[in-house]
């Protein structure tokens, strides 16, 4: 999308503002997902002052926006979506003209503010829409405690503009502080310095001194309590969930310590996690200082804590060194999965890491096959072309797992010691800066690889080519190879479910087992369920993979539990494959629509926008 096509006047000012000898050291790549003129005028700091209104489901107040005017431009262009703009003031408190451009369903609309070449700050007074896509407002009945309402935000990828007018591209970094006013029975938390207890008057102040991107702006408000898990880590959760959460996440401090040993000091002071209600659409969101996490990771056996290692790893890859545009998304996620793998290996041992890696390869191969079958082979490249599309389209296992296996390939060629030294310097040298794919490849070639090593890795095939290159490493896991033998025996009817020795099985063993099953029928489905109680499992990862088989084999005994799962869980990773399978037959699609009619109100927009398309 041409970001200026809605307002031709912007082009005039862009060119008028540029001098022949202009310093371009601050320039960022063109971002087709943002209207902002960030190469002319750029945000440097936000000061938010907002009131949380649970009666109307709105945020109301203002944001003071400090700016750097590189080109003496006469307009500041911000991203906005469904915001009501009441007025805009310059720093001398005088009103200044502003206009809102044409509205795009995906990208919102540009907010164009008249400024002077000397302007250092503008104040935007605004109100969010009750339907702001970034914000989910929960009634008391939708929370665990059933007593108070709840609010949480999800700004990634381009939803920050629906609750704060800003330059909503990942390459633009800024500091912020905030005042949030809410009900005194609730606590407000942000991706910033947080209180650990409720205030008497419901007012909270926040400060984020390290520069972040807009997609990392985060706010949650609810009946939450805090407990420490270590020197600079802790957990927030609803009171009834707190004890279980602390037990589940007791390795958080050792994760931080292990990560620092690998790639340098943790730059964000504290690392806390807030366990959100089930409607949170992702597994986790790496908001600085305060990871937002789904309650589906509280499995009761600490088997799903790799998600926390992943979000912690983002404190280096993503939050510290950030993809410059969403086309470069793999630089955030590929690095983070690789880093997560290293943390898990350090804490839980090599066999555990090998299981995660082999499962990851299976997920990647399935994603690549699906995309290629749908005619979307270009989306199996690491570097993407998302122009004109919602950047959520690039949020697939390709960025995560193909990115990880690319880095693993580089490590195998140069050796772990050299690769770790390179990555540690990479994070140190580029901290609090954006990074794009082209510059990262240059970093690899200039600071790590010999010509022979570059050739051995075949960077071009990995980054700009489809699918998996021929030189991809083949993951090995002795633990999962043991399961593979069981799968072969069961699929070929040489053993019954009751004969399978499940001693020592973890979530990862079960996932590999379920994903390998073929040729099931109603007899086998019943046999598996009777022996292993899959329909009753409280583990969401196992439940999702089991329900896929239930749908494919019309095992209707499990459909009430499937309905309950779809109604109570809002995580898009689980919802999308289940609804997609249900949509394949008229009977199941009709059933799914009945469930969805009830469940949709409990989903975040990130989830229901996807499922709306699946069931249309």
Structure summarized in a few sentences:
The chain is an alpha+beta fold and 616 residues long.
Write the layout of secondary structure elements.
Blueprint: H1 8-16, E1 41-53, E2 58-69, E3 75-80, E4 84-90, E5 98-100, E6 109-114, E7 121-127, E8 135-138, E9 150-153, E10 173-181, E11 187-190, E12 203-213, E13 219-222, E14 225-230, E15 233-237, H2 239-248, H3 252-263, E16 271-275, E17 284-285, E18 290-293, H4 306-313, E19 321-323, H5 330-348, H6 350-373, H7 397-414, H8 416-429, E20 433-435, H9 437-447, H10 451-457, H11 459-464, H12 478-491, H13 507-516, H14 522-532, H15 540-552, H16 559-568, H17 572-582, H18 586-599, H19 605-615
Parallel strand pairs: 1-10, 15-16, 16-18, 19-20
Antiparallel strand pairs: 1-2, 2-7, 3-6, 4-7, 5-6, 8-9, 9-13, 10-12, 11-13, 14-15, 17-18
Helix pairs in contact: 3-4, 3-5, 4-5, 5-6, 5-7, 6-7, 7-8, 12-13, 13-15, 15-17, 16-18, 17-19
């Amino acid at each position: 999308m041409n970001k200026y096509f809605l307002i031709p006047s912007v082009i005039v000012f862009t060119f008028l503002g540029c001098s022949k000898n202009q310093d371009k050291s601050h320039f960022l790549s063109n971002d087709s997902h943002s209207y902002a003129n960030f190469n002319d005028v750029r945000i440097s700091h936000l000061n938010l002052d907002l009131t949380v209104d649970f009666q109307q489901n709105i945020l109301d107040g203002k944001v003071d926006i400090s700016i750097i005017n590189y080109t003496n431009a006469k307009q500041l262009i911000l991203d906005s979506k469904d915001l009501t703009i009441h007025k805009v003031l310059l720093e001398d408190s005088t009103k200044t003209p502003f206009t809102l451009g044409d509205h795009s369903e995906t990208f919102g609309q540009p907010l164009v503010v008249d400024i002077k070449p000397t302007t250092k700050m503008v104040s935007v007074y605004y109100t969010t829409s009750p339907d702001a896509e970034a914000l989910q407002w929960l009634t008391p009945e939708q929370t665990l405690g059933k007593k108070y309402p709840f609010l949480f935000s999800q700004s990634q990828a381009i939803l920050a503009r629906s609750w704060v007018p800003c330059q909503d591209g990942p390459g633009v970094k800024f500091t912020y502080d905030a005042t949030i006013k809410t009900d005194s029975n609730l606590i407000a938390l942000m991706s910033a310095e947080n209180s650990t207890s409720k205030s008497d008057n419901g007012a909270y102040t926040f400060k984020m001194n390290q520069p972040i991107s807009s997609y990392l702006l985060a706010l949650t408000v609810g009946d939450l309590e805090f407990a420490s898990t270590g020197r600079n880590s802790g957990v927030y959760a609803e009171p009834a969930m707190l004890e279980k959460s602390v037990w589940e996440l007791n390795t958080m401090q050792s994760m931080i310590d292990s990560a620092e040993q690998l790639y340098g000091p943790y730059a964000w002071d504290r690392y806390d996690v807030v366990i959100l209600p089930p409607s949170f659409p992702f597994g986790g969101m790496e908001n600085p200082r305060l990871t937002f996490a789904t309650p589906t990771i509280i499995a009761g056996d600490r088997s799903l804590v790799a998600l926390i290692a992943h979000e912690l790893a983002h404190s280096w890859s993503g939050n510290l060194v950030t993809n410059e545009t969403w086309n470069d998304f793999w630089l955030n996620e590929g690095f983070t999965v690789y880093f997560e793998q290293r943390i898990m290996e350090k804490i839980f041992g090599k066999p555990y890491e090998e299981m995660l890696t082999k499962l990851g390869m299976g997920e990647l191969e399935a994603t690549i096959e699906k995309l290629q079958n749908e005619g979307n082979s270009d989306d199996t490249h690491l570097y993407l072309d998302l122009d004109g599309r919602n950047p959520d389209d690039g949020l697939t296992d390709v960025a995560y797992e193909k990115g990880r296996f690319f880095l693993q390939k580089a490590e195998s060629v140069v050796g772990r010691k050299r690769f770790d030294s390179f990555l540690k310097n990479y994070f140190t040298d580029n901290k609090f800066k954006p990074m794009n794919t082209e510059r990262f490849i240059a970093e690899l070639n200039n600071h790590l690889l010999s010509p022979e090593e570059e050739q051995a890795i075949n960077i071009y095939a990995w980054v700009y080519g489809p699918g998996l290159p021929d030189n991809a490493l083949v993951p090995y896991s002795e633990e999962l190879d043991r399961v593979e033998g069981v799968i072969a025996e069961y699929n070929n009817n040489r053993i019954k479910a009751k004969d399978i020795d499940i001693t020592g099985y973890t979530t990862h063993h079960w996932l590999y087992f379920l994903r390998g099953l073929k040729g099931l029928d109603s007899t086998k489905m019943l046999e598996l369920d009777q022996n292993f109680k899959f329909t009753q499992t409280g583990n969401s990862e196992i439940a999702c993979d089991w329900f896929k088989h239930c749908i494919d084999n019309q095992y209707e005994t499990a459909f009430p539990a499937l309905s309950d799962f779809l109604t109570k869980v809002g995580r898009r990773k689980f919802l999308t494959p289940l609804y997609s399978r249900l949509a394949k037959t008229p009977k199941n699609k009709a059933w799914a629509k009945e469930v969805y009619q009830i469940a949709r109100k409990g989903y975040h927009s990130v989830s229901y926008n996807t499922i709306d398309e699946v069931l249309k």
